[in-house]
Amino acid sequence: MAFSTAPVELKETLATDQFITALTESDIRIRIKQAHPKDLNEAIPLAVELDANNKAEKQSAVRIASKEQTLDQFRDLLSDLSKKVDSLQKKQYTPKRENKPQQRTCYYCKKPGHFKRNCIKYKRDKERNKERQHGS
């Protein structure tokens, strides 16, 4: 060992510096240096706490991004549905008589232009039947 005769405080300071330097995330490394830990017993829990906070922040950011993406998808679906509803309202059923002139056909004499209740032949035939029934 190179520092076997070094005082304990020096060994502790070197170990703490080595630990901080070995940290991969620069923001954690900077925050620990700013906290001025006296030894490894202060540096390690601080590093663990900062790492946990970073992971929680990243997960929160992912959740927020996921919620925003879901909200965007919902908005797209809502827009599509709105367009389809508008399209269906435009294609809504309109009675045929509005599109074509009315064609009335009598079911009794089969001539166009009137209905059975207004048919002259039907009324005449109905009167003849009444006269036959009363006259017999």
From TrEMBL:
Signal peptide residue numbers: none
Annotated coiled-coil segments of the chain: 64-91
Domain CCHC-type span(s) in chain numbering: 106-119
Annotated GO MF terms: nucleic acid binding; zinc ion binding
Keywords of the record: Coiled coil, Metal-binding, Zinc, Zinc-finger
One Pfam family here: zf-CCHC
UniProt cross-references to InterPro entries, sorted A to Z: Znf_CCHC, Znf_CCHC_sf
Family matches, as PANTHER family: CCHC-TYPE DOMAIN-CONTAINING PROTEIN, ENDONUCLEASE_EXONUCLEASE_PHOSPHATASE DOMAIN-CONTAINING PROTEIN
Protein name: CCHC-type domain-containing protein
